What does this fold into?
Amino acid sequence: MMLLGKFKTIEMKKVLIIILITLVGCMAPKKCCGQGELKKILKFSTFYVAANGGNSISDVDVFSVTNGLETVTVKTPYDYNLALGIRKIARFGYENKAQTFYDGTETSWSDGASIGKVSGLEFLFEVDYKRQQGNEYLDQHHFIRYVDNNYILKGEYLEDGFADIKYFETSQRYRYKVNRKLSFNAGLAQRLSEPYGYDPLEEWMLSNGSLHYTYLAIKEGYTVDVYTNEYTDPNGNIVATSKEVWEEVVIPQVLADYSERKRNELNQTIQHSLVLGLDYYYYKKNFWIHTWTNLMPYHLDLKSDFSYHEYNNGQWLDYSGGLIFGYKYTKSLGAFIEGKYNKYWNREWYDFKFGINYIIF
It folds into this structure.
C-alpha cells in the first residue's frame, strides 16, 4: 500500500508539471512570469484542503459448517475523502453560490463543458484520496482552459477509480460563434493513456474459448495439490482447501492481479484525434438550458502494436456531452434535468439527476 501511494504521488507530480508547463508555455503571455501577473492569474481562485468521513456498510456475519458451525464477521472500515484543490471557474447563472467553505464534496456539471461562463483563463486542480466500502481510490481532475472569441485551448488530466479510466488530454480548437448563445468548434486533440483494449488474458485462452486459469496461476507462483486439496500462494500460505474456494475466490483475484500487473508493464500510448464540438447556453431566472457535445470521429493510426485500432479493427467514435435544464412553471412548481456522459475507448462514465420541486407557501 505504501509503494502504491508513492507511485501515485510521483505520477501526480508529473501530471501537475506537464499542466503547469502547458499553462506557462502555451497560454500565457511572456510577461506573465512577474509577481503581478501571477497574482492576476490567481485572483478570485480558491485553495482548499478538506477531510470528510462517515460509516460504511454495516458488518456482515458469514456462516460456515465445514468444520462445525463457524461464524466470521466481515467488517468494512469507515468511508473517507481527503481533498486538496485549487479552482478558478466562474459560476453560470443556474449554479448556486458556493458555500461558506469548500469542503471537497462539491461537484459542478459545467466543469465538463468546453467553454466557461467567461472568456479567458480558468483552471481546476483537485486530488481526492478516498475509501468507499473498503476500496481505496486516488481520483484526480485537473484542467486548464483558455477561451477566446476565435479559439479554445485546453489541457486536462482525469483519473477516475470507479470508472477505471485515466488519461491526459490536450486540444486546440477553432471557435465559430453563431451568436452569444451558440458556438461550434473544431480542431485536434491528443490523448496519452494506457493501451486500452489490450487484454492480458487473451494469450491464456484455449481454442474452445475457455481460460487456462490453473496453469496461469502456477506460472504466477501458486501451487496445486489435487491429492490433499491444498492450494498455496507464492509465499507458501494455504489459500484454499477445496476446488470450489480455489475457483470462486482465489482465481478471480489471481486474474485481477495478473491483468493489472501486465497493463502496468506497458508504456502509455498517444492518440491523435479530430475533435468537433458545440456549446449552447441560455439563461433566464425561470428557464435555462446549457448543453455541450464533443465528438472524435477520426483517429490517426500510428501502426503501434498496442494502438486501439488493432483491438477495434479500424476507426471508432469517442464522444462526451452534457445537459443542464431547468424550468420553473410557476413560483411553486419547477423541474430539472442535469447530467453528463463520456465514452472513450468503449469505457463509459456518467452522472445524472432529474426531479420536480414544489414549494408550499
